[in-house]
Model the fold of this input.
Amino acid sequence: MTASSDIARRRAALMDTIGDIARQAGRKPSDITLVAVSKRQSDARIDAALTAGQRVFGENRVQEAQARWQDRRGHWPDLELRLIGPLQTNKAAEAVALFDVIETLDRDKLARALRKEMDAQGRTPRLFVQVNTGEEEQKSGVLPAQTAGFVARMREQYGFDIDGLMCIPPVEEPAGLHFALLAKLAAETGLARLSMGMSADFGTAVSLGATSVRVGTALFGSREN
Ligand SMILES: *Cc1c(COP(=O)(O)O)cnc(C)c1O
Done:
């Protein structure tokens, strides 16, 4: 059991830690957004996070996110929802309708689908390009060497105003190497935002320039199923 007071307390502690590490790195705590990853968490926990003041949430599946957030949106108008999982082109319409930020743009086919839906719906979710920093076979994301070209194409060919880069490092490698690589790629492409760091390594990410960290279990407790 995770009581709602636990979530409020953990959230406060996380924000303190993020603030401390930011200051140590010469950064402003307010430059880092805590994204609460709510996938596979209970309604009670999510409502506890909302009551504690959390407004930015990350989800990795479109349908699950719709079920969880469509009604809550009405109650919490200042909510910000971020898609942090892979997006199939046949879910582009739902994703554009629901999310404020899509962090997993990684291929032209998806760019075409998003452009079409954004024009049709008149909604413009902010976009991050996902980079496969570990060059893992099974993982989504553009390869590091192709990132600059991909970002340029997103801007020129699709008219996207790319917000930043996102990565999920390989589990078995020190995350810091991947965060540093993502920061370097962002600097080279003129992007100011970096989505990197999860429960186990958000501190490292903040010290290496993360502007948002995606934290699930360290805030909510372990996930269901
Ligand atoms: C699940 C998930 C997270 C959160 O992971 P925790 O270890 O629970 O903090 C962060 N980012 C992505 C892309 C995820 O899928």
The longest strand covers residues 126-131. DSSP finds nine helices and eight strands in the chain. The chain has a mean pLDDT of 97. The beta strands are 33-37, 56-59, 80-83, 101-105, 126-131, 162-167, 193-195, 212-215.
